[in-house]
Amino acid sequence: MSRLSAVRPAYWISGVLLVVAVVVPLLVPTYAKADPHLWGFPFFYWYQLMWVFLSAILVSISYRLLRAEERRRRAAQGLGDPDAPDADVDTKEAGQ
């Protein structure tokens, strides 16, 4: 089995989403025009602002995918939920 086949789909999807969020706004031919206008703003301005919001959404989706994958991986290894309160802290407080 190769190393690439061991990579889970969540990592591939997250990588593609992050690449899209970074690369597409850098492609000058996609926004090097003045028309169409939106509420009086040239295309360049509202297109770049649109990508600010789209990139935030894509990064959020990527984060949630990777967080869910990390939880599945930790559960499969018997390590527990990383977001759950530490059980050791509770037992120490109960003993005092």
Model description:
The structure is a single chain. The model has no long low-confidence stretch (mean pLDDT 77). α1 (9-23) runs antiparallel to α2. With 96 residues, the protein is mostly helical. It has 3 helices and no strands. The chain starts with 8 loop residues before the first helix and ends with a helix.
List the keywords:
mainly alpha; 3 helices; DUF3311 domain-containing protein; transmembrane helix; 96 residues
Layout of helices and strands, plus pairs?
Blueprint: H1 9-23, H2 43-76, H3 87-95
Helix pairs in contact: 1-2
Number of strands: 0
Structural class: mainly alpha
Please, how many helices?
Answer: 3
Straight-line N-to-C gap: 51 Å
Shape: elongated
What radius of gyration results from the CA coordinates? 22 Å
| Proportion of strand residues | under 5%
Transmembrane segments: 12-32, 44-66
Organism: Kribbella jiaozuonensis
Region (Disordered): 74-96
Protein name: DUF3311 domain-containing protein
Question: Short summary of the structure?
Answer:
Keywords: Membrane, Transmembrane, Transmembrane helix. The chain is mainly α.
